[in-house]
Design goal:
This protein has five helices and four strands, in the order αααααββββ. By secondary structure, it is α+β, with helices and mostly antiparallel strands. A hairpin with a 2-residue loop joins strand 1 and strand 2. The longest helix is centred in the first third of the chain and has 16 residues. It has a domain of 115 residues: Nuclear Transport Factor 2, Chain: A, CATH 3.10.450.50. The N and C termini lie far apart (51 Å). It has a four-stranded antiparallel sheet.
Length: 167
């Protein structure tokens, strides 16, 4: 009877679709890496540079990247930030990993838009209306390579690049 149950269990496991057996970029990814990528997305959506630095400790030393990210996160004209990362491939080598992802960003950007107005030189300033506010829906999609390093039990981001990275 035990032999029969074992054989049935093996047949059931073999009959599972490939996704259920653990193929694909996310299935090959260590759980700690998946957690860090989720924290990265969450930090962007909460617009928190401090949360990014927590999972990407060297970010402040990467001056150009840090300034670019901080400028975006501190921009009061940006709202309703949504980001997603979809891992496409994961490579690991000892305590290092590179995850190629498809990244999508979607946010609203509010800005001043000039409103026609009277261009005649003799018109009084009170006749010229000021700029109005407009909202632009911004959608971006790109591929990024996220380089990570394992620090004890936790993974941290080393860099995020739109250029392909390797070990």
């Amino acid at each position: 009877m035990l032999v029969f149950c074992s054989a049935v269990a093996q047949d059931a496991a073999a009959a599972q679709p490939p996704a259920a057996q653990g193929t694909g970029a996310q299935a090959q990814m260590p759980a700690g890496i998946e957690i860090v990528l989720k924290k990265y997305v969450s930090a962007y959506e909460r617009r928190s540079a401090q949360d990014l630095v927590t999972i990407w400790p060297d970010l402040q030393n990467q001056k150009k990247e840090f300034d670019k990210i901080k400028h975006h996160l501190d921009d009061a004209s940006v709202s309703n930030e949504h980001m997603s990362l979809h891992p496409l491939a994961t490579q690991t080598l000892k305590d290092d990993a590179i995850v190629r992802c498809e990244r999508t960003e979607h946010f609203e950007k509010t800005g001043a838009t000039p409103t026609g107005g009277d261009l005649i030189m003799n018109s009084a300033p009170a006749q010229t209306p000021g700029p109005s506010q407009s909202t632009k829906d911004v959608k971006k999609a790109d591929k990024v390579w996220v380089k990570l390093h394992k620090n004890g039990d936790d993974w941290v981001i080393v860099s995020v690049s739109q250029k392909q990275l390797s070990f």
